[in-house]
Amino acid sequence: MKIELLIGNEKGTRIYEPAVLEGIEWSTGRRGAPGRLSFEVLKDSNLKISEGNPVRLRVDGRKIFYGFVFKQQSSKKEGKVQRVKVTAYDQIRYLSNKDTRVYENKTADQFLKMIASDFALKVGKLENTGYIIPSRIEENTSLLEMMENALDLTLENRKEMYVLYDDFGKLTLKNISNMYVHRKEKYLLVDAEAGENFEYTSSIDDDTYNKIKLAYDNKDSGKREVYIAQDRANINRWGILQYFDVLKEGEDGKAKADALLKLYNHKARSLKITNAFGDNRVRAGSMVAVNLNLGGTKVRNFMLVEKCRHIYKENEHWMDLTLRGGDFIA
């Protein structure tokens, strides 16, 4: 396995190839977090690392990560050579900036283009998300949360999920249907031989709701309109688990309540796999095939990667996965 990690200088006139210690870590999350690269290098008088420096990682020629240094920590123990621990993030990190935005009649991909242009971010392939958001006011909110809200509205109205990520220095937006990990129709399979440890969780404690209640304050009539969608069978089974929100002007209360009930009215199932054989194609947002028998519970389906952590060493490549979804058979 050939690992190439390069660091540029502030002016873009020099490129360093530092002596990297074993244990490069590349982590991605499907929501709420940028891609992160962490590594340690040996201190060198010729190596000039500064916050904002570009960082590029390739493994066996494959483009893995492009981002910028945000943190460095120096250490020296027992007279040994000084080490520098570096943390770099991809462009998603800049979507942590807060702002106030008012927009109308835009799809999520069009809104992302607008944000990227205003904050000088590079854009790659953005698939048409299809749903036109009538109007939206986002006040004192991070750009990333604004985008997640736009994608959530798309999911509620079109029943289509999209994944936002940075693809080697370019913001990318893809439909989940185009995130399956395969090569020539042969899908990556996670089975009992692929990972060292498995942890399966079934829960109604997080993001499970069997009653949706939405309210809208109608300024014209001076009355509050309430929309409710519920599943009485699951209420009898689990008790009332209520989701409440206030509608914005222009939203269809009944349609949104029905869509949210369909989205959240089920058990939350997750599967954590540690020390699986590494595959550079897998990142948060990927879809992987899983075939496992977990002590009486079987899963044989595609699952969504919520979090992914790759660990690269000289001759080893492992990954930890947090998956959700899929059909579980007791």
Structure description:
The model has no long low-confidence stretch (mean pLDDT 90). Strand 22 (297-312) and strand 23 (317-324) form a beta hairpin. It is built from four helices and 24 strands. It has helices at 108-118, 143-158, 232-238, 253-264; strands at 3-8, 15-16, 24-29, 36-42, 54-59, 62-75, 83-89, 98-106, 123-126, 133-142, 162-166, 171-175, 182-183, 186-187, 189-190, 197-203, 211-218, 223-230, 242-246, 268-277, 287-294, 297-312, 317-324, 328-329. The strands form five sheets. Strands 1, 2, 3, 4, 5, 6, 7, 15, 16, 20, 21, 22, 23 and 24 form a 14-stranded mixed beta sheet that branches. A three-stranded mixed beta sheet has the order 9-12-11, covered by helices on one side. A three-stranded mixed beta sheet has the order 18-17-19. The radius of gyration is 23 Å and the shape is globular. The chain has 330 residues and is mostly beta strands.
Topology, pairings included?
Layout: E1 3-8, E2 15-16, E3 24-29, E4 36-42, E5 54-59, E6 62-75, E7 83-89, E8 98-106, H1 108-118, E9 123-126, E10 133-142, H2 143-158, E11 162-166, E12 171-175, E13 182-183, E14 186-187, E15 189-190, E16 197-203, E17 211-218, E18 223-230, H3 232-238, E19 242-246, H4 253-264, E20 268-277, E21 287-294, E22 297-312, E23 317-324, E24 328-329
Parallel strand pairs: 9-12, 15-21, 17-19
Antiparallel strand pairs: 1-2, 1-5, 3-4, 3-22, 4-7, 5-6, 6-7, 8-10, 11-12, 13-14, 16-20, 17-18, 20-23, 21-22, 22-23, 22-24
